[in-house]
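User: Could you check the structure of this?
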Amino acid sequence: QLVESGGGLVQAGGSLRLSCAASGGGASIMGWYRQAPGKQRELVASIAGGGYSYYAASVKGRFTISRDNAKNMVYLQMNSLKSEDTAVYYCNAGGPNFGSWGRGTQVTVSS
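Assistant: Sure, the predicted structure tokens are below.
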């Protein structure tokens, strides 16, 4: 089970830190996805067990994904937030096709 937290309302230029608690342990590949109204769900960032990370071009340099394997936690530090970052953010374990999903946490960035 994946449970996200840390979403909320923030002004443009601000920061938020999302957390994902993976009860029962996570997966080798953990990721954060987001879905804005009327748009498809998209990958924001992912991290492998060894720490290799991937970022969507739209967030590179602003967001940082990290994980604490001992605590079964994954984090997404979001800085310099923009209005276009507004979306529901989902934690994923094991990939989008066969992995597990959390229920999501809303991030709203006001301009």
